[in-house]
Amino acid sequence: MKFFRGFLIGLQFFSAVPITKQFPMDQVHLKRTIQAFPLQGLFQGLIYSFLLYLLLEYTPFSHLAAAFILWLMTIVLTGGIHLDGWMDASDAYFSYRDQEKRLEIMKDPRTGAFGVMSIILLLSSRFLFIYEITENAHLMSFILIAAIPFFSKAVMGVLLLSVQSAKREGLGFLFQNAAKLEALWIYPIYLLVSVFLLPITGILLAAAVVCLFYARRKVIKWFGGITGDVLGAAVEGTELILWMTVWLLHYFVME
């Protein structure tokens, strides 16, 4: 029951799913939320895959229209929470200031030019990948699409508990205080099951691992640790790489 509550807490925080029930915000439930991150991502990915399947099989919409609706859903379903982190982290990084100043920039509610340019680049690239995947979609495409947020949320959980917090406040610090790295013992089970049942997802797993190690090094160097915005940026960056990986698979493996 606590695990399921943790799953729902994660949906409340990191999606636009209208869950109005109040849940306990103690360490036990927040720990379960972190353990359920990949399942929250899988839930999100299944919605993407099912939506695309319905659009392609049961509507008269063109591939372009279907791709646009799916692209829009990737924004609407998350409520834009991770995109906000991507813009704030981009503004901070491209300021080329010291770590303390970058943290101050991320707290500024205003969005700078670099944040705007980075979000345009992110969303336009994602649309390109989605559109060309949609044009050549088959059964394996839907499986891979469902796996994208599954792996990105796993990266978020590992970063959260394996990198120190850059500041003693905010959403990242709240979750980080609820659990230790040992709480992620369930993640390898998730990942092994996914690769055992669907070996092709191992390619996405490999890409996600590369993103994880790169993010860990750069987060510490650029920001001195994680924050809620940095985690959001890591999720968006990882998902972009995974969308690109699926796109490339359609060109070179699944022709």
From TrEMBL:
Highest rank taxon of the organism: Bacteria
Membrane topology: Multi-pass membrane protein
Cofactor: Mg(2+)
InterPro entries from the UniProt entry: CobS
Keywords tagged on the record: Cell membrane, Cobalamin biosynthesis, Magnesium, Membrane, Transferase, Transmembrane, Transmembrane helix
Principal cellular location given in the protein's record: membrane
EC class of the enzyme, as a word: transferase
Record's subcellular location: Cell membrane
Keyword Hydrolase: no
Described purpose of this protein according to its UniProt entry: Joins adenosylcobinamide-GDP and alpha-ribazole to generate adenosylcobalamin (Ado-cobalamin). Also synthesizes adenosylcobalamin 5'-phosphate from adenosylcobinamide-GDP and alpha-ribazole 5'-phosphate.
Sequence similarity: Belongs to the CobS family.
Stated name of the protein: Adenosylcobinamide-GDP ribazoletransferase
